[in-house]
Amino acid sequence: MALNSPFDITGAKWGEVKQTAHYHLAILPWGATEPHNYHLPYCTDMLSSAAIACEVAEKAAQKGAHAMVLPGNPLKSSAEKGARYAQAVVEKYVELVVELAMKDLY
Q1: Greatest CA separation for the chain
Q2: Which of 24, 47, 63, 95 falls 20 to 30 Å from 7 in CA-CA distance?
Q3: 2 three-class SS
Q4: Per-residue pLDDT tens for 39-79?
Q5: Among candidate residues 49, 30, 18, the one with its CA nearest the CA of residue 96
Q6: Positive or negative CA dihedral for 58, 64, 65, 66?
Q7: Where along the chain do its domains lie?
Q8: Helix or strand or coil: residue 14?
């Protein structure tokens, strides 16, 4: 992940997180875990999405929003289950996001 980013909770300490009284945005990166030939790691997609999420959090901070990048969620290999598996995962994430958005989390 992007442990050197101040927005990545995987590298954050409790004291740092506690200083921010209210977060406006939590970003959950996710990506496939699959081979990428001989030159790239299996979690290339996951690592890339975490890096992009940290960039998004930084841009949000520049506009005054407090954002935190959550630990990423790697998906199984696309070769294992194919498009149907990926579709099911996306549908579950959408359900989760809608359910959380409907709750009063403040």
Answers
A1: 47
A2: 95
A3: coil
A4: 988 888 888 989 999 999 999 999 998 899 988 887 766 55
A5: 30
A6: positive
A7: 9-77
A8: helix
Q: What is the pLDDT of residues 78-98, one digit of tens each?
A: 555 566 666 777 777 777 777
What is the token pair recorded at 83?
């498009």
Instruction: Tell me how many degrees the CA angle 70-43-14 measures, rounded to the nearest 5.
Output: 25
Do residues 20 and 10 lie in contact, with contact meaning Cβ atoms separated by under 8 Å?
no
Alpha-carbon distances, residue 9 vs 16, 31, 32, 70, 71 (angstroms): 10, 18, 21, 6, 7
SS in 3 state form for 52-83? HHHHHHHHHHHCCCCEEECCCEEECCHHHHHH
Three-class secondary structure of residue 1 per DSSP: coil
pTM of the complete model beyond 0.85: no
